[in-house]
Amino acid sequence: MPSIPMGDLQLPPDAGGLVLFCHGTGSDHHSPRNRAVAQVLRGAGLATWLLDLRGAADHAALDALLDAIDAVDDNPSLAGKPVGLFGASSGAAIALQGAAARPARIATVVSRGGRPDLAGACLEQVRCPVLLMVGALDQQVLELNRRAATRLHCPYKVVLLEGAGHLFEQAGALEAVAELSRQWFAQLMCREQLQSAAEALSL
Predict the structure, then answer these.
(1) pTM of the entire predicted model
(2) 7-202 in CATH: which number?
(3) How far, rounded to the nearest angstrom, does the alpha carbon of residue 13 sit from its chain's CA centroid?
(4) What is the pLDDT of residues 101-142, one digit of tens each?
(5) Alpha-carbon span 4 to 200, nearest angstrom
(6) Contacts of residue 149, Cβ cutoff 8 Å, sequence gap at least 6
(7) Domain residue spans in the chain?
């Protein structure tokens, strides 16, 4: 039996899909930044599952994410519905590795201030569209995201958020992250849009 990670699963009525959140090192499902984004996504009719991967080594964290993905269809309210992944900081690498391992189940990946470079060779195996959001003041991470993006063989977009740092603590920065995430997931997790993913890159 798979070991399903602990976390916070929230199901709005008639959810159109599910977004799984992968937190960075030292964080967990209580992360106020990710919870703020999750609230906006639920307002758009998407279920959210903030996973608790804190303390897990990279391999164990990936295994836990895959167990969670595999368990989605056991929930009658979510069975067969699109699944997206949201990764922050080092959690973005885990999300991308999960997308590479479950290409038939993952509709898209969104990264906030992430380290996609840590996904290694899995970057070249990702097939779903990817959104990489980076604060303009976070120059080192921005360069790492741009380099990682060149290794992707899927539709992707790198979005630079002006005036934002690594933690998006500046006024309006987190709200911008939440709104961009809402737009991206809402487009790519509608079945009609999955047939023409490139259209989402017009965001």
Answers:
(1) 0.89
(2) 3.40.50.1820
(3) 22
(4) 999 999 999 999 999 999 999 999 999 999 999 999 999 999
(5) 31
(6) 116, 130, 132, 156, 158
(7) 7-202
